[in-house]
Amino acid sequence: MTDVMLLDDAQPPRRWSQADREAVLAAAFAPGAVVSDIARQFRVSTGQIYTWRRQLKPRAGFTRVKIAEPADTQPSGVGGCVMLIELAGGRISVSGSASPSLVTAALRALR
Fold it and tell me: Is residue 61 assigned to a domain?
């Protein structure tokens, strides 16, 4: 036998509070959860769940970058610093002679 869910059009659409939306999203995207099962449980469409998730995702921000003038005008030698990279985990100086694999390994270590 097939389960059928009847929707009653006589009632106005439900207004979901922010806390209710977050509870539905937490249940829907918990490990092992099936979105369609959670949607049925809360009587909301799967499309609504995905819309709420998209709306709650943090949006890409803007970071201001200021390019500083070089500290000295003397040409750097072979081992001189070409690039200085600062991340939350630390700072590295990359010279022109550094191999791409070495730079990649250093950046991964800073994450």
Answer: no
**pLDDT score, position 98:** 81
Name the most confidently modeled range: 58-62, 81-85, 98-102. 98-102
What CA–CA distances, in Å, run from 3 to 6, 10, 52, 60, 85? 10, 22, 26, 42, 58
- How far is residue 28's CA from residue 37's CA, in Å, rounded to a whole number? 8
Interior/surface letters 25-48, b for 16+ CB within 10 angstroms, e for the rest: bebbeeeeeebeebbeebebeeee
Structural domain total, the chain? 2
Q: How far apart are CA 28 and CA 100, in angstroms?
A: 41
The residue to which tokens 């829907």 are assigned: 28
Residue 86: give the domain boundaries. 81-110
Q: What is the mean pLDDT of the chain?
A: 81
Position 40 scores a pLDDT of 95
